[in-house]
Amino acid sequence: MFGLIGHLTSLEYAQSVAQDLGYPEYADQGLDFWCSAPPQVVDSFQVKSVTGQVISGKYIESCFLPEMLVNRRVKAAIRKVLNAMALAQKSDINITALGGFSSIIFEEFNLKDNAQVRNVELDFSRFTTGNTHTAYIICQQVEKGAALLGLDLSQATIAVCGATGDIGSGVCRWLTQKRDAGELLLIARNRERLENLQTELSRGKICDLKEALPQADIIVWVASLPKGIEIEIESLKNPCLIIDGGYPKNLDSAFNAPGVTILKGGIVEHSLDIDWQIMKIVSMDIPSRQMFACFAEAILLDFEGWHTNFSWGRNQISVAKMEQIGEASRKHGFRPLLTL
Ligand code: NDP
To answer: 339 pLDDT band (50/70/90 cuts)?
Structure first.
């Protein structure tokens, strides 16, 4: 059995969907209440592969909200992730994806040193960040999206915002080792990590956002922002392909600018319907088929019987592992979302 640990994107949104999640009493409650809420299994379902194989899964709502990080509720955020992992383990789930901010909190606050959660000793081999599949899918969206717009990758300038992160560094490795993409613009805040990445890649130009955006033919957003930001749309190139892989979205609002195409990054579509509720709640366009690529990684690991922490630790994503999970992804009927 596979598990998915997820969370909602804001307090306001969580209040609006509390009823659907099975918590009507949370609808009028503020952040304090969500900070004290325990994790819950809110959905159980089956997924069928195009090979005919059927597996079962559960969705665990951790009750983490990104506001906990900006409002100095870090201890609550840590508790949410550890408690959700303990619940997954107690529920006898073989492999569970740590969706969205769950894996970021795990790494940022070194939670591998907190394996004892009350009477449960966490076995980290039962968890995966899902980031290898996410990075692979984003690279597919870059390649296929560029082809649809008539952009030649070998000539393109590609800006990666969040380049030094787990997903961002995987994307940069793929684009340099596998595709020989044009120019790479590397964006993040910590200069030392940027320089280390530049050394590892033997290429890439370190840029700030304002400098990078007007130069980019393709922009990949994979920064860990608790809230979306606004950008100067007028400064973007025409055409420009934007792949927003953030959860919550890195870009504050949807916009309609001539020549600018935005893809929902890190989202996959399955070939067969899945009878689950949760993807309606997280606002997928086709909830019975679309999902986050990190969740799909847990599904793929369960299909393949690879009950192991396939994606673990920071900045370990290799092109070989992206190819391996990509092959499993295609075999079981998943494809990158390319709806423009
Ligand atoms: P990491 O924490 O590993 O990396 C985050 C990156 O963003 C780092 O390079 C960090 O560098 C950079 N960053 C953070 N804040 C800023 C800022 N203000 N300006 C510029 N750069 C910034 O995160 P992940 O790679 O694990 O995840 C990235 C995003 O992808 C998140 O939004 C996450 O929720 C989402 N995600 C989506 C999935 C999907 O299935 N679609 C799956 C998993 C994650 P620095 O701190 O130096 O600025």
So the answer is: confident
Who's near 295: CB < 8 A, 6+ residues apart?
A: 4, 6, 97, 99, 130
pLDDT in tens, 304-324: 999 999 999 999 999 999 999
Structure confidence at residue 72 as a pLDDT band (50, 70, 90):
confident
Q: Counting beta carbons within 10 angstroms of the beta carbon of residue 227, is it exposed (0 to 12), middle (13 to 18) or buried (19 or more)? A: middle
- Does the beta carbon of 166 lie inside 6 Å of ligand 1? yes
pLDDT score of 123: 97
Query: At 224, is the pLDDT very low, low, confident or very high (cuts 50, 70, 90)?
Result: very high
Average pLDDT, stretch 260-288?
A: 95
Nearest CA to ligand 1 atom 36: 100
Residues 141 and 234 in one domain: yes
A 10 A CB-CB count for 135 gives 33
Q: How far away, in angstroms, is 225 Cα from ligand 1 center?
A: 7
Record the pTM: 0.97
Best residue for ligand 1 mutational test, from 222, 250, 251, 299 (most atoms within 8 Å of Cβ): 222
- Containing structural domain, residue 245: 135-267
User: Closest Cα to atom 16, ligand 1: which residue?
Assistant: 223
Q: Are residues 200 and 223 in the same domain?
A: yes
The reply to whether 245 and 285 lie within a common domain is no
Both 261 and 139 in one domain: the answer is: yes
Distance 125 CA to ligand 1 centre (A): 23
Query: Is ligand 1 within 6 A of the CB of residue 9?
Result: no
pLDDT of 59 = 97
Q: How far is the CA of 46 from the centre of ligand 1 (A)?
A: 30
Question: How far does residue 84's CA lie from ligand 1's centre (Å)?
Answer: 21
For the chain, where are the E strands, in sequence order? 2-6, 40-48, 54-61, 95-98, 116-117, 120-121, 127-128, 157-161, 183-187, 205-206, 218-221, 240-244, 260-264, 267-270, 290-292, 334-336
- Give the mutation target among 224, 294, 334 for probing the ligand 1 site: most ligand atoms within 8 A of CB: 224
- pLDDT at site 340: 67
